[in-house]
């Protein structure tokens, strides 16, 4: 869980910079912030968390498969996050919530992605 947490911190830090400083939309920022975090987690996890299957696919092939999976997952959760943002931003919510809405959405989708990533990366690393 420490490796995933480290990846999440990297992802979240980049996401914050993109949404708060550059004012990018939720969907765009989430796409951009994910790639460095995915790369970090993949390489740390394949070396320290999961056992490599002897005779399996080369690591670079597994990385490409994982990145492909991530692109699909990120597209889905980024779209979902943007839809939730668009729905909530027009509601008469307290200013503190509205000001933090992009952050709250990122935090809300994190458990979904972390859990899916753990299972997919484990299967990819140990079974293929």
Description:
The protein has 128 residues and is mainly α. The protein is built from 5 helices and no strands. Helix 2 runs antiparallel to helix 3 (59-88) and helix 3 packs antiparallel against helix 5 (101-127). The longest helix is centred in the middle third of the chain and has 30 residues, at 59-88. The protein is elongated and about 55 Å long. The model has no long low-confidence stretch (mean pLDDT 85).
What labels would you give this structure?
128 residues, mainly alpha, 5 helices, elongated
Sequence-ordered SSE layout with sheet pairings:
Layout: H1 2-21, H2 26-48, H3 59-88, H4 95-99, H5 101-127
Average pLDDT value?
85
Q: What share of residues are in beta strands?
A: under 5%
Biggest β-sheet: count, sense, barrel? Answer: none
Number of strands: 0
Stretches where pLDDT is under 50 for at least 5 consecutive residues are none
Order of helices and strands: HHHHH
Distance between the termini: 22 Å
**Portion of residues in helices?**
over 70%
Global geometry: elongated
Structural class: mainly alpha
Number of helical segments?
5
- The radius of gyration computed from the alpha-carbon positions, rounded to a whole number of angstroms, is 16 Å
């Amino acid at each position: 869980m420490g490796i995933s947490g480290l990846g999440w911190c990297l992802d979240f830090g980049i996401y914050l910079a993109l949404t708060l400083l550059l004012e990018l939309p939720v969907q765009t920022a989430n796409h951009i912030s994910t790639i460095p975090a995915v790369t970090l987690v993949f390489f740390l996890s394949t070396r320290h968390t999961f056992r490599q299957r002897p005779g399996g696919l080369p690591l670079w092939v597994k990385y490409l498969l994982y990145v492909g999976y991530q692109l699909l997952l990120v597209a889905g959760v980024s779209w979902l996050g943007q839809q939730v943002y668009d729905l909530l931003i027009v509601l008469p919510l307290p200013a503190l919530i509205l000001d933090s809405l992009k952050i709250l959405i990122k935090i809300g989708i994190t458990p979904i992605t972390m859990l899916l990533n753990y299972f997919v990366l484990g299967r990819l690393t140990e079974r293929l």
